[in-house]
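The passage that follows is intended for readers who have already worked through the single-chain material. We present the inputs for a multi-component assembly, then the predicted structure in tokenized form, and finally a short commentary. You are encouraged to pause after the input and sketch how you expect the pieces to fit together before reading on.
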Amino acid sequence: MTVKIITVGEDILGTNEEKARANNKRLDGYGILTVDIMSSPGAGKTSLIMSTIKYMKEKARMAVIEGDVASSVDADKINEMSIPVVQINTAGGCHLDANMVESALNDLPLEDTDLLLIENVGNLICPNAFILGEDKRVMISSMPEGDDKPYKYPAMFADSDVVLLNKIDLQPHLEFNVDGFKKIVTGLNPDVIFFPVSCKTGAGMDAWFAWLESAVKGKKNR
Amino acid sequence: MTVKIITVGEDILGTNEEKARANNKRLDGYGILTVDIMSSPGAGKTSLIMSTIKYMKEKARMAVIEGDVASSVDADKINEMSIPVVQINTAGGCHLDANMVESALNDLPLEDTDLLLIENVGNLICPNAFILGEDKRVMISSMPEGDDKPYKYPAMFADSDVVLLNKIDLQPHLEFNVDGFKKIVTGLNPDVIFFPVSCKTGAGMDAWFAWLESAVKGKKNR
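Having made your guess, compare it with the prediction:
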């Protein structure tokens, strides 16, 4: 299986929200749960996706869209796990948009997919303003980034359905107030679902897997 | 001393490069070394600035411009150290630009400044495209982000004069290949100056301070 790479040029334009609604309707037609995963660079998006594939691949038919400014190193890793994947290179762009996702959908086996994970570009600011057609928005904040991030980048914390606090295995070596962090996040976003996890050790991942499995079933049974 | 806060509206426009050249000329007139500090969220920009103030404040007259999407928590910390500081809130914008910096310069005592540190918005993509009038660009990459970041965000690594690899105190708990990382960075940027440091423990900071002190003197003696 070779990895399909889309390089985004200026000819891909259009109104983002309209296109996102069309993507959502198209994915709905197949009963696919679509999750947009956002975070800072290096917070653990690819690690989360790989752990999730290992757990979920026997339970749901998965596909992945990988967004990056450059390179296809992440898509290559997903491809090695025999999961259909499309790499989008934004050529300097700081977020995915609905047009890019539409192009990627054309290269995925939607009729054989239950769960689509979209890894957005590593950025705590710009991706938040562009809906893609997703059902759920998941953001990862990693412990080494510090417990003040919700103050500084409030919009993404406010608009996400789920916040994963990753790299909790490093907690003994950091000064990070988990209760304080959770309090700021729920202040911005009272309905948020919060999972402290370590993609490295697996700590806390069961709760994330259970939530995701339930959401996939919920989408199928609508 | 109260912290001056600039909230950026749509009325601040203009051509960025022209304005940046004007800022640079203005700062040159005062013999001020100006450094633009860029990184992912939570990589250690504020920690670097605070450590640098502690070391440099007896050696050079310093001032700071703090860029954030929201909040003034960083500027408040700098203000407590009795260093002139202006907070720029970008109101959702993902980078500083030369217009914002020009506004901030109007509120700083330039005639009494030798070294101006500008903390850009936490983002590995957008700030790179906007020069501000700086003499040097310094980027911080932190070890927990992973050693593959130069592959994924090559432009900022390629265009920075200095790359600081921060949080090396966490190395025993991470899988991070320092030599491999340095090799990718110097491949993108053969003239880069590379400092592995820990702002937390102080490891490696002497080399950074020596470089900065020398650059401040070089600017004064031109």
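Commentary: The helical segments of chain A are 16-29, 45-56, 73-80, 98-105, 149-152, 154-159, 178-188, 205-220. Chain A touches chain B at residues 40-43, 68-71, 73, 92-94, 121-126, 129, 142, 144-146, 148-149, 151-155, 167, 169-170, 173 (CB under 8 Å). How closely did your sketch match?
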